[in-house]
Amino acid sequence: MQFFSCTVFFLFAAISSASAAHHRQPVTIRCSKSDTDDVADDFLQGIKKANHGGELWLKKGETYVIGKKLDLSFLDDISVRLDGEIKFTDDVEYWQANNFFYSFQNTITFWVWGGKDIKIHGSGTLNGNGQRWYNEFAGSEILDPDNTFLRPVLFLTDNATNVEVSGIHFLNSPCWNNFFVRTKNIKFDGVRFDATSNNASALPKNTDGFDSYNVDGLTVLNTEVNVGDDCFSPKPNTTNIHVENLWCNGTHGVSMGSIGQYPGVLDYISNAYIKNVTLLNGQNGARLKAWAGPNVGYGYISNITYEDIHIENTDNPIVLDQCYFDLNATTCAANPSKVNITDINFINVNGTSSGAEGKVVVDLTCSPGATCEGIHLENIDLTSPAGSPPEIVCSNINGDIGVRCTNGTDSPP
To answer: I need a surface site. Which of 40, 249, 263, 284 has the fewest CB within 10 A?
Structure first.
């Protein structure tokens, strides 16, 4: 058992200074004495006390262990200053049985944040304690319909308006780092995400930086993401997206989607501006992804701009994937995607692929079951270690894309 240094007093001068700086009455709670000392009840009481204009302060150098699910859906004008560490227990059996469940991709979470005017800031850490989850999930797939091992999302908002998160470090989330549901105007600034494993045969999976569902107004600024899945990936019905100054390492890219997963359901993503992004050592760079196959949905991705994007050692620097999820070509051709892709811009994209796809650095293969038009590429300077000249593939796209491309059916393997 790990024991923590837990200070039981607080400095009046520091609290007075913090209060003056933020114009909020500070609230403190006891910290944990060990990694099994659950302070979930204290945390909940602290949140209730700080609600309606106060600030819960979690102090630097102290750890607050959460071992019980928390409903925080009642918030109204609250600030949480996280300078210490919030750490969730890795009691897999408890969390499998006690969580908040969302039917979209069988998502669960430790807690739900909801309400309005919520601010979370500081220099501390939100620790998902994911190693045991990585070990026990190893080899599984979150989207496998037979998967029953559900892993919690580290931070989830539902029915929330005006949420700001800044400064903190998200560490080792068991699954997605964030999932925003029925949320309006959420902003992240200066946040860092890391998911690493000490077990080479059980690497973090599905540890996306950002996921969303029915969200209007999603802003991410000045953020670093070092995880094993999507760096940024808004999901169905997300609109008015702004991403700027984003750094991604070892990820599956900055993706729009996936959408179109559920039978008969209309999904969409619209109005996104993605600027000044660095993508290193990943599977994908700038990606649009939609489901195909029998019994899927339909929808559209529209008015998306990627601008000033730098890519290094990435398998697919720019890619349109309308055969998601790992669908074989025969099934995809027989049941093509019904997600339309319109008004998409890739401007000032430079760097190198990994060579995993040969000379292909851009693959824009549109589904024959969908409409793809208004797709524009400008100032594309991507190379491949597999040789020159680099190849841009386009297929089933209406109109000129702005650069010379080859039809995917004529492309060499």
So the answer is: 263
Give the pLDDT confidence of 165-218 residue by residue, as tens digits: 999 999 999 999 999 999 999 999 999 999 999 999 999 999 999 999 999 999
CA distance 92 to 151: 8
DSSP states along 5-31? -------HHHHHHHHHHHTS-EE----
Nearest Cα residue to 215 out of 259, 170, 278, 154: 259
Question: What pTM was computed for the model?
Answer: 0.95
What CATH number does the domain located at 12-410 have?
2.160.20.10
Which of 312, 318, 264, 252 lies closest to 291 in space, CA to CA? 264
pLDDT for 7 equals 60
- Are 399 and 344 in contact by the 8 Å Cβ rule? The answer is no
Q: Tokens 């939609």 identify what position?
A: 290
Instruction: List, in sequence order, every beta strand (DSSP E) within 39-124.
Output: 55-58, 63-66, 70-82, 85-88, 100-102, 107-109, 111-121
pLDDT at position 17: 41
Go through 22-53 and write b for each residue having 16 or more CB atoms within 10 A of its CB, e for each that does not.
bebebbbbebbbebebbbbeebbebbbebbee
Annotate 160-219 with DSSP letters as a single string. Answer: EEEEEEES-EEE--SS-SEEEEEEEEEEEES-EEE---S-TTS---S--S-EEEEEEEEE
133 DSSP 8-state letter: H
One-letter amino acid for residue 2 of the chain: Q
The encoded tokens of residue 226 equal 């070092």
Burial of residue 389, with CB atoms counted within 10 A of its CB: 0-12 exposed, 13-18 middle, 19 or more buried? exposed
**What pLDDT, on the 0 to 100 scale, is given for residue 22?**
53
In contact, 6 and 62? CB cutoff 8 Å: yes
Residue 133 phi/psi, 5-degree rounding, is -65, -45
With a CB cutoff of 8 Å and minimum separation 6, the contacts of 271 are: 239, 240, 241, 302, 303, 304
Contact 132, 86 (CB under 8 A): no
**Residues with catalytic function:** 229, 252
* Residue 412: per-residue pLDDT: 36
pLDDT averaged over consecutive 10-residue blocks of the chain (413 residues)? 66 40 85 97 98 98 98 98 98 97 97 98 98 95 91 99 98 98 98 97 96 98 97 98 98 98 98 98 98 97 98 98 92 96 98 98 97 98 98 97 82 35
